[in-house]
TrEMBL record:
Belongs to the AB hydrolase superfamily. The chain crosses the membrane at residues 5-22. One of its GO terms (molecular function) is monoacylglycerol lipase activity. Its main location: endoplasmic reticulum. This is Mesoderm specific transcript. The keyword tRNA processing does not apply. GO terms for biological process: acylglycerol catabolic process. Residues 62-312 form the AB hydrolase-1 domain. It comes from Oryzias melastigma (Marine medaka). Keywords: Endoplasmic reticulum, Hydrolase, Membrane, Transmembrane, Transmembrane helix.
Amino acid sequence: MREWWIHVGLICVPLVAVYLHIPPPQLSPALQKWHNAGQVFHFRGSKIFYRESYGALGSSDVVILLHGFPTSSYDWNKIWDPLTQRFHRVIALDFLGFGFSDKPRPHRYSIFEQASLVEALAAHLGLSNQRVNLVSHDYGDTVALELLYRSDHNRTGHLTLNSLCLSNGGLFPETHHPRLLQRLLKDWSLLAPVLMRLTNFMVFQRGIGEVFGPYTQPTDADFWDMWTGLRYNDGNLILDSVLQYINQRLKHRDRWVGALTSTFIPLHMIYGPLDPVNPHPQFIRLYQRQVQRSTVTILDEHISHYPQLEDPTGFLNAYFNFIHSF
């Protein structure tokens, strides 16, 4: 009996070792095309991926797209071409720790650093003195609020904002419901290193699938592209550090919600009401009560946390109506 357990152990140990070091998947042709169309600039010693397209002739309008957690700039792929038909320049980046950007570890990831990264990219692209429009989602919403705060307080290096469109972000800690794995990782529990190593494609697919609507689920190829972006540069091993943004939202609530409620910059919220992370109607009622200057678009009842992917046409119609309203 004792020898049997020894044999099992000898077999299992290398199997587990191999499992925990599974190499990241190869880029799909679509993701490779997105990567090839992008560029890199350096920010505080790290390489940051961004993509820029020049579009509408006769327009000087610029839009910068800020993605959510745990995905990347590729979240905007379904609305990229229509945006280039409306704007002169369309820009998206992968935040530090996301997508094709560097993912240093150990590192103290923060919303403040990501906002400075966006400002540095704007300066790199010669946009420091130009009015820009921001479109953000989820994690990107909080980065946008820090940029809004800096703009309204005339901080050195700030962006000059023309408008801000938010979507399905956890703006209010009191109505934000992170997923179980996020809660475990954000508190840096003793389980965090193990959980990050054990998170595989099936766990990821199930977790992401839960924040999409039942009729708007990603395809298998979409799931793999999201997972590939996360695994790129070992991004799965820094999730606990990146997730500190949830704690930062609580700590800096007055600063960021205050910026939202006091600004005179045109604001719009595009909201998928089936979102389990920012549930309906609690989230949108609080938003409308707190941010009375903002206009709101509530998409169809089956749209959830990723409206730009689940309903790109509805998202674009809402955004263009907003842009044309001022």
